[in-house]
Amino acid sequence: MMSSPTPDRGSGAFAVSIRGDVPSFLFGTRMLSMNPGIRPLLASLTLLLVAGCASTTKIQVQRAPEIDLPGVRSLQVEPISTTGGLDLDQISTGGGLLGVALDVAVNVGTNVAASRQDGKWSDWSTADLRGALVRNGTFEVRETKDADAILKGSCEYDVRDVPETIEEKVDGKVVSSYKIERTATARVRFEVVAPDGKVLGAGNVEQARKVKVEEADAETARDRIPDWEDLVHKAIADANEKVVSRIAPYYVTEERTFAKAGSKSIEKGNKLAAKGDWDGAATLWRQALEGNSQDRSSGLFNLAIRDESRGDLDSALAKYEASKAAKSQKGIEISLQRVRSRIQERERLRAAAALRDSSATRPNP
């Protein structure tokens, strides 16, 4: 069964490697089985990962956009002009000058076919950007020209294949395979313009999606490579989400590591919090506040993480400071700096919201 591509959320790229019917990560396991000396290291790493899972959690954090749009409550999205080009791995038409000419003709024909779809892509890009704004919820998206500002833009995409013939020796025999790496890149240029033509903000974003396949022969690899249109859809959608995050508040997922101490209350609380039982964890962490300075510091540190997860940043800052005063924890300075920065972002967001609210009550000229 063919493995399905999975996104790499951290990098914004989309990558998977397929070799026959086996995902590429299994090749690492196969190689480890050939080298018994690596097994103890693998076991140690596995134990370390398992231990680490119990002392970390992920929380949603609101971030302020790079571009402030004071007083803007509603946006009209103008049609996003979308164009693109393809450089795909095609079936070879033979060698010599005639073969080269035919190969060029195949690529030209592919790009002509793609260009005929530019109108479809423009409609889709525009609708997707509007949808991303609606999901964000900061601005009212209007179809009419009575919006507070207009979002304009253009999108360029390209899809490029990088084919490679691989030869390796297996049991003294040369075995060949064919690999294709396909990358779809979307570049969006945008600007937000007031009704009087004043540019309120502008920028460029770029996002890419990638897939890889490796098969015994070129024909099979070309047949199994995911469709280029699907990759373009994903790349443009990623770019549109990035545009929205440049002009509106957005959420990101961040990891927090709980403090550890000798107290059983801290350990049990950490495990409950890692499972999402924040109330049960908080009860145990508060019990640890009656212990020694290490337990008190760890309990306060972890209660601060709970406050962060709830968006209570002032309380989180106070608890981080108290944790440091009781006994300095690893990462306490980074945590203090992070929360102070988030409080500054929160004040920016509140000021922007106040301006939007005041403009909502202001009579139209």
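the 2nd protein, sequnce then structure:
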Amino acid sequence: MLLFSILIISTIFVLMLKLGLLRYFLFGTAILLFSACQRKATKSIATPSEPIIKTKPKALNFQDSLQYLMTRSFGESQDLNGFIIYDPEKRDTVYAKNAAKYFTPASNVKILTLLTALEILGPTMTSISYHLKSDTLVFKGTGYPLLLNSEIIDDGELLYLLKKHNGPIYFDPSNFQDNHYGSGWSWDDYPYLYQTEKSALPIYANSVWISKANQSSRINVDPSYFKKHLRVNPGDEFSIKRNFKDNNILIEIDSSQDQLINKTYPFVYSDDLLVQLLSDTLNKPVGIWDKNPLPKGKQMKGFTTDSLYQIMMHFSDNFIAEQLLLNCSYEVFDTMSTSKIIAYTKDEILKNIPDQMRWVDGSGLSRYNLITPRNLSYVLQRIKNKIGPDGIERLFSRADEKKSKKDNYLFVKSGSLSNNYNLSGYLKTKDGKYLIFSFMVNHFMGSNRPIRNKIKSILDYVHKTY
């Protein structure tokens, strides 16, 4: 390569010499040499104003990492999501996103109901208030939900009192000042057990059980009183429906098929129905007291409230939640009104809550309810102060029931309606500290499974790194 270059330069030199252009050749060569030297000199001199410095990227702190996870999980979604983590020991909000925005809480409302009951009710629930006037027994309801309840068996003292009395028995309904459905409940959910009617003194959990074991067996109805409301027609496909406004039930069934029936329906409650069912059970007449309402009488205590709290929180039992709130109203006012006890709780128990809220029922069935994540965080802090770590792990559901109590670190209450999912409660860190959190996601399309998975992965990160 070098010899080839020398040969070319020599040829050009001879050609320039013959043409009389040698001076131009020498001048151009000098310019090229000078430029090459300048470029080399420039490369060899460092620029003081632009030093070359190598640095490691700055590590993200806990909050920044959590924000990254939230953005990665929910950044492109069209839903509304809010999240708050509060450290009660430090009295510090660790992380907050949309914590003051309003969400539909669904069954997270039961957290408010729980605090109300913890503040008002004692260790046992009042079952009835009654008066003995010579040989006449007059009793009032209190919202007690366990009279002849086949799922939750109480001590039977209330039924025993009614059975052993030999004189006239009357039910006084005057202290029930509420509707049997909650404000904002969906009318077309009437046949489902999760929307059982509330009342002053529920009987048989305000529901009727219809069963059939096999093709040859008869259809069983419990309580048997409702057999007269049952009609069975032949049909190509099995169906069972209760009318909206009454207790008539139509069953269509193919008699050639071995059809199993196991269905529980809420019934349409009335005071007349209550006394009729009681009369059938006691085998003696029970009437409705139509004279002047009686004041609060002698109290009969029933089931332990702590057991009912567990049923409400672990199984998200809407019926128990509504009746607990009515029982709280009875204890405060001697009357049962959901709206009155909610107003009382907001004014007296939750007067320092961070945000105003719309709260209309005890269960969370209503879409009228609106609450913020930081409100739920405040209520959870109040509950923690009231029941302590043992109470938290007893009353709140473990997020993963397959894990042992020792390995579980989430103690929560979920809440879901169509297109809404919320999870609030307590996160136990590796060093045994309890963090309070509320994660609310509303207005998404499709199943809530992807939402639940995203929430779980974020809470896993908090557990491992905080």
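The radius of gyration is 37 Å. The longest strand covers residues 124-133.
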